[in-house]
Amino acid sequence: MNCGEPHETDCSEVLSEVWLFLDQECDQTRREALQTHLDECHPCLEQFGLEEHLKTLLARKCGGEHAPENLKQRIRATIVEIRTEPS
């Protein structure tokens, strides 16, 4: 997704990291960059709102259980691998 407006951080990059933002799993510098983008970009903010509601619903319906740390690390590694693959 791209809103067509120039941003320091690309829309697709922000949306691919929205779960890290919601889970507060990114460092403060990255969090600030993502927040700045969301403050500036209405389409991304709308998408973020949908993701935020989904996260809240999942937490409520799934009892707030947390995934094991090794599972989180494997998922993050897979995401990084996929994002760095040539198109």
Indicate the percent of residues in helices.
55-70%
Overall geometry comes to globular
Number of domains: 1
Write down the Rg: 14 Å
Q: What's the total count of β strands?
A: 0
The amount of beta strand, in percent, is under 5%
Question: What's the mean pLDDT score?
Answer: 81
Domain Putative zinc-finger: 11-44
Organism: Lentzea tibetensis
InterPro entries: Anit_sigma_mycothiol_RsrA, Znf_put
Protein name: Mycothiol system anti-sigma-R factor
What does this 3D model show about the protein?
Residues 11-44 form the Putative zinc-finger domain. This is Mycothiol system anti-sigma-R factor. InterPro entries: Anit_sigma_mycothiol_RsrA, Znf_put. Pfam families: zf-HC2. This protein has 87 residues and is mainly α. It has helices spanning 11-16, 18-22, 28-40, 42-61, 69-84. The chain has one domain. The protein has five helices and no strands. α3 packs across α4.
In a nutshell, what does this entry contain?
InterPro entries: Anit_sigma_mycothiol_RsrA, Znf_put. With 87 residues, the protein is mainly α.
List keywords for this structure.
Znf_put; 87 residues; 5 helices; globular; Anit_sigma_mycothiol_RsrA; Mycothiol system anti-sigma-R factor; 0% strand; mainly alpha
Question: What topology emerges from the helices and strands here?
Answer:
Elements: H1 11-16, H2 18-22, H3 28-40, H4 42-61, H5 69-84
